[in-house]
Amino acid sequence: MEYLKIIILAIIQGLTEFLPVSSSGHLVLAKYMLGLESPGVMLEVFLHFGTFMSVLVIFWKDVVRIIAAVLANFWKVWKYPAIMKKNEDFAMGVYIFISMIPAGVIGLLFEEQIEGFFDNIFMVGIALLVTGTVLFLTQWAHNEKKPLTGWRAILMGLAQALAIIPGISRSGSTVSTGMFLGIPREKLAKFSFLMALPIIFGATLIEARDALAMDGFAWPAIIIGTGTSFLFGYFAVKWLLSAIIKGKLHFFGFYCLTVGFLALIFG
Fold it and tell me: Most Cβ neighbours (<10 Å): which of 40, 41, 217, 252?
């Protein structure tokens, strides 16, 4: 694949992985409307790795504290409630684990049905309209001070699970749900990105397993793709963090609604 196409796909991956506009939906649209085919399993692995690293670089201190807290208290199951009240990092780790459960269950039960959506541009258009509508409605969500709890983590996990459908934004779904639940925006923004890390890492490992069966590495393409997805992913994370804190998420809703309608009209 020409380097220009690799760069375009890496930019799409980097920006849309975290901006609330659906990376999977945009990759489907790029395939059908721009004629950009899949870059191959190996390059897809490194594109995901680039976006994973962009979040890790920004939140590495939080990740280290959470991992340390979980390892220190992992076997104290009977003390979890008390520890969570005293140790915010441990509580965050527990909530991240809870949020992963819905995506795992839905992914296992409906894997074949979901794969069919990636060849259906009409469904992508409908899903983008849903994403746009939800994002648009966030302008009426109040910035309350309700705590992050187990059931709120489950609800955000369910929202994340819906993003398995191309056109439904993962960040848009989780952040919107958190805003409607009244979670403070700064904590919500951090939790939304942290709960994405295991999902992105898991997807990267699954793709890497398939890639290991392949021969040869196109290192120039891999380096260009990984670096591009990292840089644009970093920019996207910073942009979205600012938009969440300022309560400007609904502006992305206009974009999703526009792209969704265009997908229905020209798809």
Answer: 252
Q: Cβ neighbours of residue 195 under 8 Å, at least 6 residues apart?
A: 95, 96, 99, 100, 153, 156, 157, 160, 174
Contact between residue 53 and residue 234 where contact means Cβ atoms under 8 Å apart: no
User: Which residues span the domain enclosing 119?
Assistant: 3-266
**Taking the CA of residue 214 as centre, how many other CA atoms within 13 Å lie in the half-sphere pointing to its CB?**
13
Work out the burial of residue 40: count CB atoms within 10 Å of its CB; fewer than 13 is exposed, 13-18 middle, 19 or more buried: middle
Dist CA 192 CA 83 (whole Å): 22
- How many Å apart are CA 255 and CA 165, to the nearest integer? 18
Query: What pLDDT, on the 0 to 100 scale, is given for residue 4?
Result: 84
The torsion defined by the Cα of 127, 26, 243 and 201, in degrees rounded to 10, comes to 100
Number of domain units in the chain:
1
Alpha carbon distance 127, 41 (integer Å) = 25
- pLDDT score recorded for residue 20: 93
Find all residues with CB under 8 Å of 177, minimum gap 6, and list them. 155, 156, 158, 159
Give the chain's radius of gyration (CA, Å).
18
Q: Is the pTM of this model over 0.85?
A: yes
Q: Flag residues of the chain having pLDDT under 50.
A: none
